[in-house]
Design a protein that fits this description.
4 copies of one chain form a homotetramer. The first copy, chain A, is of the alpha+beta class. In chain A, 23% of the residues lie in helices and 34% in strands.
Chain lengths: 135, 135, 135, 135
């Protein structure tokens, strides 16, 4: 089973726009929060991946916006790791209302693994093992 | 042929992140600039669509990140209208380096047409005609 | 004694810039988080102030940046209410490192009280009493 | 006389909040645009200051918000250099409506000059001369 993280975020005015709802790119910033927290849960905080000499820039992103979040609402960001390939990793996200009754936004992102020279690199084995522990 | 708009944007520090490149959601804000300018070119600025009683929230978004933009670079946002359906519209975007030699980011967005009651509504004919002029 | 709120915020990449530190306006967004939480503590969430028919736009802001926050650090936003005048309110903020050993940023903001017609209005008494309870 | 730059910015949805006006930190991002453009005018783009080995982080900021900007308005950012000290520089900003009939926001920022070791450093003479040319 895929690892999974739930993190709450409170909507502030900075997140909203003149339509009265959260501006569409701000949900994608919450995806980053979810990604950061699932990696921390797994014992491989992203800051540690960087100390190992790697970065994971976003190469693909997709979102479907189903229902808007509004000022002062609490939302729940649910993050899973969908797939770890040789040199890339795919996360998937659901943003729920506070009671997790309704999905507001769903999305996924693919990240390349890049070494210090900026070249595509294998996901380091110590990271891969934390994500897919050997049985 | 589909209408097309080219708009230049200069990268500022606010757009970048600690990887030294533009943070991935900021390219998507530039998509909004392109969308805004292509509608203005067509004689239907988005503010006017709102005055007619409609809003066009984003319902789907996708991006592919090919090469990063960096601080102080000029980028060119190329925006086209890909498709106008009964109650939705799809834009497509290319973000180029200054000389338009290389695509940095490509993406598209789908927008629902919503009336003041928040219901899905037909794209108003006066808007549709500006996008697809009768021959 | 003035009411006081402490709220933790985790720095994400979205908050940083190409200098490797938090971009200077993002600390000011955290001021908004602190303001929101101190009002909630006092039993007058800002959303309720809006339901009473008022808004509190920022009219003055000042910040001093002493030491930068970096990616993945936890910071503590300490918010106090400095002064409640007839038609305005002043908040003061300290942003601390995680252990509250060092102040990173200090600032304050003044907010006018505006009614639905956009006119300056008295802070409503039910709000004033929650901030300065009668003895 | 102090050098001076005027740059136009078009308000997009990303800049606004659920009050229907520009969120207060976004004017401060436009200050960065003005700062960037006045330095370019003077022949010392900030990217060049960085190549010389310096950075100019913000150490103090203040703003007064007089009148809001709204979606799709063009605003004019007027930037001046107020003072160049030994190791710091102060900019001042006026954000005007499109016709420059009314000031919407006024502010100023102080920046320390920092060398690659992160130490306070003199503003390099080749930069100082461009700002205050010898007569």
């Amino acid at each position: 089973m895929s690892p999974n993280n739930l993190t709450k975020v409170r909507v502030i005015y900075a997140d909203t726009d003149a339509m009265g709802i959260v501006y569409h790119t701000n949900y994608i910033k919450w995806f980053e929060i979810g990604r950061s927290e699932i990696l921390r849960d797994l014992g491989i905080p992203y800051a540690q991946i960087e100390r190992l000499g790697y970065s994971w820039p976003v190469t693909e992103l997709s979102c479907r916006y189903l229902s808007p979040a509004r000022y002062d609402e609490l939302v729940v960001v649910e993050t899973s790791i969908l797939e770890v390939k040789r040199a890339s990793i795919k996360f998937t996200y659901l943003i729920w209302d506070e009671r997790q009754a309704k999905v507001l936004v769903e999305g996924d992102s693919v990240h390349a693994c890049i070494n210090k020279e900026g070249k595509i690199a294998r996901i380091p084995p110590e990271v891969r093992e934390k994500i897919n522990p050997p049985r």
